[in-house]
Amino acid sequence: CADVTLIFARGSTELGNMGETVGPALAKQLISDLGADKVAIQGVDYPATIESNISLGSEGGPTMAQLAEKALKQCPNTKIALGGYSQGAMVAHFAVAQGGLSASDVSSAVLYGDPEDGSSVGDLPSSRLKEFCATGDGVCETHSFDITAAHLSYA
Length: 155
What we know:
The chain has helices at residues 22-34, 61-74, 87-97, 138-141; strands at residues 4-9, 39-43, 79-85, 106-112, 129-132. It is of the alpha/beta class. The protein has one domain (4-152): Alpha/Beta hydrolase fold, catalytic domain (Rossmann fold, 3-Layer(aba) Sandwich), CATH 3.40.50. A 5-stranded parallel sheet has the order 2-1-3-4-5, with helices on both faces.
């Protein structure tokens, strides 16, 4: 079992279950920092379409919660780290707030371009949450879903 299990939800229209930008870059950095044998990586398979933004994370949140619970059942000492980019950040919010994942089971969460920037991730203490909102990112600065170059700059 790995020391850390990252469960990541990609942004709208990104391919694969980790996406193409933020997810792979975050995974690569974790592996570089901690070592490949210390990190398990799992993407969340959910319909990250433009239209599914209206669901506010409910289409992927339960899956993220289930993946975390499965990882903890198989590896009780692993630290669960949640990650999400754009719509994927809403998936993380939903997983902890409404998806059945207890905040006590989450060691940390890191969110990028979060449409719900500034709001809590369920009962997860703010000390275990890191949010990145680039200057000029309309999605997280104004909560307008205004896709600017800044929103596409995370990686």
